Amino acid sequence: MKARNRGVANPREWSPRENLPRAVSALQSARRVLLTMHRGPDGDALGSALALGAALREMGREVVVYNPDELPYNFRFLPGAGEVRREIGAAEAFDVTIATDAGARDRLGPHVPETPRRGVLINLDHHLTTEPFGDINYVDPEAASVGILAYKIIQGLGHPLSRDAAICIYASILADTGCFRYSSTDPECLRVAAELLEHGVDPWEMTVRVYEQQPLARMKLLAEVLATLELDQSGKLATITITREMVTRTGTHLDLTDGFINYARSVDGVEVAASFSEPLDGTRSWHVSFRSRGNVDVSRIAKKFGGGGHRNAAGCSIDGDAQEVRALISNAVAEALSHV
Ligand SMILES: [Mn+2]
């Protein structure tokens, strides 16, 4: 989601206009490029990495795309997704490493090499709360998706847009604008999307692949999760809970719960939605996701608990039992709502 600096005290000056040419020039001379993204990748992280991967391969560069986790179910059709590697050899070295949509260095996988094997590290991001962990930080909180930044890099390299790259960029925009619905939707992403259609993207095919090919088990899980939907006393906070038991019983996986929280936010009168995902690994670390209707900056709430994100979409992990975690979040959200 697009993250305007509105409401954030002392926003960092990312100077994307100055950093775009720096990223482009680092890639101009690179022979071997590593593309990686945050763990548990979403459509933007994966789509933006694969778009750059496609373009750089077309330019004759050696490209490795790496993520140790399962790729998001509805984005596995993207060109190049089949070649994403889950490991990187201990001796492999790169001229440039690009991290897309990551937010923080520690959200990258364990095999991402350190300097000097990683080469120049480019942090490509649009998160409001991102850290400047790259040698080059091409960060633009105004960009609707990181795919837009990938598009600008490909343009900067003077490389014509292929259909494969166009599909990946379009997917990244769909993912982060909720199919052109969220406030992140802006003239720039619509202009880029128009150009992507001119390069062979079929919008209905993309919609079907991303939104209308869901595993039946996901819908069964959604039915169970929606049964946990609750409003607090004010009617402004809606919560849903995803328990380990529900996930196991429906034979699904947590990555299939992506989007469930939007149902909670869509309840009339709700300002903030929170989803609580019980740890599947037997730890006490709950994952909490937030969505805001726009009046509360949920990235600030997530940040209090060591997480981050955007104004309208953020997340964090909290240790504790279900009740403790719910109480912490209810209080933090009530506090934020008292300022609205
Ligand atoms: Mn993103």
The proportion of residues forming helix, as a percent range, comes to: 25-40%
Strand neighbour order, sheet with most strands:
6-7-8-9-11-10
Question: What is the terminal-to-terminal distance?
Answer: 21 Å
General shape: globular
Low-confidence stretches: 1-7
Average per-residue pLDDT, rounded, comes to 94
Rounded radius of gyration (Å): 20 Å
Overall CATH class of the largest domain: Alpha Beta
Structural class: alpha/beta
Write structural notes for this entry.
The chain is an alpha/beta fold. The chain folds into 2 domains: 16-211, inorganic pyrophosphatase (n-terminal core) (Alpha-Beta Complex), CATH 3.90.1640; 217-338, Diaminopimelate Epimerase, Chain A, domain 1, CATH 3.10.310.30. It has helices at residues 16-28, 43-58, 146-156, 163-177, 187-198, 203-211, 216-226, 244-250, 260-265, 298-304, 322-338; strands spanning 32-37, 62-66, 96-100, 120-125, 136-139, 230-231, 237-242, 272-277, 285-292, 308-309, 313-319. A 6-stranded mixed β-sheet has the order 6-7-8-9-11-10. Helix 2 (43-58) links the parallel strand 1 and strand 2 (62-66). The two termini are 21 Å apart. The structure holds manganese (II) ion. Manganese (II) ion (MN) is lined by residues 44, 101, 126, 145-146, 176.
